[in-house]
Amino acid sequence: MKKTLAALLLGFILGSSAAVAQNAQHFQAADGGQDNPSYTFFNDATTGIYRSGNGQVAITSQNSQVGTFSSTGLILPGNLTVRGTATITGTQAFTGALTAVTGTFSGTLTAANMVVSRAGIYTAPNWTASAPTYTFTGDTSSGMFLGAVGDLRFTAGSTLGLQIQSTGVLVTQPLFFTPAASRIIPGATSISLRNNANTADNLLVADNGDVTFLRTMRASSSLVSPAFSFTQATGAGMTLTGVGSDVSIRAGSATNRLVVSDSPAGIAVTGQITATTTITSSGATSGVGYATGAGGVVTQATSKSTGVTLNTITGQITMNAAALAASTTVAFTLTDSAIAATDLVVLNHVSAGTAGSYTFTSTPAAGSSVISVRNVSLGSLSEAIVIQFTVVKAVTS
Length: 397
Prior knowledge:
The chain is an all-beta fold. Helices cover 3% and strands 45% of the residues.
């Protein structure tokens, strides 16, 4: 039977122990329950207070528990609505929603499912990088804040480090990667990849924002240690061998490389070139041939049949001035390591002597060629003619 306050007082006056008792000048009542509160009211017997356990006093409203007081604090199983300013001096936990209708909160709040605001979302002022909106008890200089509409920012140690925008993610501080000692350093129109020592070596820069080109600023690059290289072959790669002049692409060794030069302008190859298609020249005054350094000169001694040695792919032979009778052929051997047995040796009379009076043939062998010179004139000629030879590489398969 529910007891109103008047009934309890009447029972106390009449000495009814079933309703209420007095002990050490305190009023005592039965424990009651959620549906039967110990202390209730004339107009609402479903609302009041009761003992819900040892050291606990509960509040019920229309037979529903809405709060429990204990030595550890206040437990609210439902929502808490604050219309003024609520100051919390300790740490409070809410299992329901915490709603600020017109007031504000200050203090420490913890909840498994806590929302703060009329719309059910926690809101707070924007604040700044040095004083972020959302922070931590152990570090109030690190956290999250709103820089502008659609601009969520993260700060660490009062320094802006990351911005999340609708157009992308902006990193304002270096990005470090582990275990490799490297990092990304953002700039106004570029990003840099550096070693952790922050030195100029191994620096890669993508400029102009749209990454139109990559640039290395490695100071110690060389043919042996190129600026751009590969993990499988660190000796192969590309490097700058002269400021504003030569860019060298190396493969395998320093002697097998391609050099693109600005002075003199052109491309130089120090190794063998193998083409799977036709090599042509479209220049009206240029062609396919040999550059300075590929040739050489030699002079025949003693007689026109004396052999000569010249280990170049092209060159000039000055023959002895001994007499060569009319309609007579003389032969001598050119020893040349550039000649293979399958090659073609092209010969031409370029200077000295009577033009049109000689014919030439060549019989190549491995490392040499027999050159035959015939006097086709009607008289004996004693001329030190100059023969230009060029080796054209050829194969039979």
